Amino acid sequence: MNRILGICLLIAGCHVNVAGQCSSNADCTDPARCDTSQHVCVVPQDACYPFCPSGKACIAGTCQDTTSGACTPACPSDKACVNNSCQPVTQASVFLTSPVANDFVVATVQASAVAFAPGGVSSVRFELRSTAGAVLASATATAPVSGSSFAASIPLAGISVADGPAVIVAVVVYAGGSRESAPVSVNLDRTPPVINVAADTNWYARTLPGGAPNIIVVTVPITDAGSGVASAFLQVGTGPKIAGTFVSPNWQFQLDATQAAPGVEAPLAFTIGATDNVGNQATPVGGSRNVDDVAPLIAHVKVYLASLASPPTADGVTPPGSGSFLYTDNITISGELTDLGAGLAVSGAPPNPSYVLNGIGGSAVTVAIAGCTAAQTTKCTFSVTGSLRAATFLASSGTITLTVGADDLALSGDGVTPAHHHSVSTSLGIPVTRVKWSKTISALTSVSGLAIHPDGDVIAAGVGAAANSNTVIAVHPDGTIYWQVGTSWYANNSHLGQIDNAPSIGAGGNSAPIYVATVGQDLVAINPNPTTPVTPATARLWQCGLNAVGQAMHSTPAVATITPATGSPYDAIFSGDDFHQLHGASFKTATTCNLQNISANPNCNCKTTTSVINLGATLYQGFDTGGGSNTFGAISGTPLGTGLAFSTAVRSGALPTGFVSVTSLSTDGTLFFGMDRGAAQAYSFTAAPANGWSNSTTAGVNGDAAIEAASGGIIVNTNDKKLRSLAISDGTASQLGSTFSANGSTPLLGSNGYLYFGDDAGSLLAVPDPGYGTSWSYKPSATAITAAPTLDCSGTLYFAAGNIVYAVITDSIYGLRQSSPWPKYQRDSRNSGNADATTFWGRDQGSSANPRCVQ
Known about the structure:
Layout: H1 2-10, E1 33-35, E2 40-42, E3 56-59, E4 62-65, E5 79-82, E6 85-88, E7 93-98, E8 103-105, E9 108-116, E10 121-129, E11 135-141, E12 149-155, E13 164-174, E14 177-180, E15 184-188, E16 194-195, E17 203-205, E18 215-220, E19 222-223, E20 229-235, E21 242-243, E22 245-247, E23 250-256, E24 265-276, E25 285-292, E26 297-305, E27 316-317, E28 325-326, E29 330-338, E30 354-358, E31 365-368, E32 379-387, E33 397-407, E34 422-424, E35 428-433, E36 435-440, E37 444-452, E38 458-464, E39 472-475, E40 481-485, E41 504-505, E42 514-517, E43 523-526, H2 536-539, E44 540-543, E45 558-562, E46 570-576, E47 581-587, E48 593-599, E49 607-608, E50 613-615, E51 618-624, E52 632-635, E53 650-651, E54 664-667, E55 672-676, E56 681-685, E57 691-696, E58 701-708, E59 713-718, E60 722-727, E61 733-735, E62 748-750, E63 754-758, E64 764-768, E65 776-778, E66 790-791, E67 796-801, E68 804-809
Parallel strand pairs: 8-15, 17-25, 26-27, 28-35
Antiparallel strand pairs: 1-2, 3-4, 5-6, 7-9, 9-12, 10-11, 10-13, 13-14, 13-15, 16-19, 18-23, 20-21, 20-24, 22-23, 24-25, 26-29, 29-32, 30-31, 30-33, 33-34, 33-35, 36-68, 37-38, 38-39, 39-40, 41-42, 42-43, 43-44, 45-46, 46-47, 47-48, 49-51, 50-51, 51-52, 52-53, 54-55, 55-56, 56-57, 58-59, 59-60, ...
């Protein structure tokens, strides 16, 4: 090594190759050359060893920093700008200025380099090479762009090489030879982004509820394995290009659905384009989103009675022959729903599709159309049955409006949130009435009272239109007359005669007897199911006989059960007459009765004015003294125990001053409450009986009283057109609600918080409790409604005006009020007056979950 170094020192400016000796230039590292005489590597005079790095030039054997652009004019290629002056280079050098390391290159590579060479540069060749060194493409610059800067475009068209890593070198050619730059690694990227527009089967609304455009979010995977996606756009037709947003890992675009034509259900086509970071542009890819701007079609809607054997041919409402549906009717609603776009939405909450019944005076009720399923997205032919009672109906007659609604499955732009198109059919008016029927009883001039038989018949009694008229009539629940009796009841031209109050019904089921007390002084039991033809002989169960009791009777006979020492229990009926007598009768033979008469008030010349009440095996009755005393009596002993043999003991107490009569009597099971209509007084009595309280009702009482502790006590109508409540504890009177337009009569307390009464102007009133304003009313005529109304277990109320009986549907669907001990005249739907009866006829005795009403 010392020998080599010593030789080198003899040669000015030489450098020794660390590889040692050489036999040719190949053994030396540029720029050293092999001195074959000495067999050592020698660096030429003024050359730089090793080569200068990029940005430096070899000036007189030293690498100097160049300052490109600092010299004006620019230095030629045989000189370099060093310290702001052009100095001759002593060694060739070249370095790339573009592209820079790891740049992406596309179809053309824009390359530039700075090259120096002693004597000047002849050319600079730019070569794109594979990583293995193969030249893929090249371009030569023979003239500098400026000074020592050379540039050229390397076209890549036609080369068959995959995208990926490559290198670029610059080769300077000069008089002394050539030299190449250090390689720069680049990446080939000649492939545009890949756009994958997936199909979307959803349907989207064109606009959102309220009319705002529905912006559909279109999510598209766009990938580029090279330089990456720089930008992307969505375009509808030739419209503006809407830039996308990269939301990893996809691109999202906002498609304005209002670019679709209004009023159609069709795809909205668009294209998606993208450009990568080196400018490769993908060919736009087409796609579409389904846009639905049509609500479901609702057609062929029909409404008809559910009981029809076959549907009507005509669309619309087909009412029954009467012209109106009953409020209790079940109706069938049928129709056809179609949606050829998004399809029909089917859901349970909220119900969809659905129909809405709008009644009168209440909120609308929405009911699901259960005939459509999720599988019937395009078309659904439905037929559903529902009750008109689903709608609030605060009227006796009127129109319930039906609308059918359907939604489609159109979505908002997020593809998740419903943005339905809702469609409703043209509203259909359904004529509805609460009046089931009215029946003129031509045999009567007026109906005195009504009772409901357990077989459903309404039993009417009254005043005959002629001396020989039938005065007891059975009317079927549909309003047809079943039978009429009374004419020639006893014998030819010997008639049953006038009945001044309601009949009563005995214990039992469909064969329960019908009882009446007559002005003709008889107590009679009638067969509810006489054989045809109906004659007195087939209708008569038993009778006491014409003039049997000695005085006319005007009240409803009370019914109680006799339990003999041996044998089966049986009915006994009780009624008072016009001469203080109380009469009890029961079956004896096929034609006669077991009759017992009692001087109920032996100390006065008075007549009975109230129907009998049975409580605790004791009979109670009120009397009209005409100004005397002892006007409330109780008959005790064993009348209801072992047989019809009751004690003649009469119990009564001293009565208040001014007491004239008890014209109405009721009980809550502990106390008795009497009304004195003439003196406008009310009284309470104990079972002893002893006086409780007395109080002025301010005005006379019309009809009898009902009892409801929740409403304050004893409820009466007074002749100053008011509904009043008298406190059970002390008789304090309170007005319920406002003044009515006419004087009312005996109130009836129904279930579901309603009470009913007729007035002297001919109207039936339905009054909510509490509130006590008129909810609805029915005025069939100007004839006063004086007979007490009655109610069956289905909520049908029966009342009479003159000689016409009416059947009206109420909202008391469980019959009489469950909480009331005395909800109507003579307590129950059979008018039994029997507070000891184990069955409360006409009143729900079950629960809301399991109603159980027996009439």
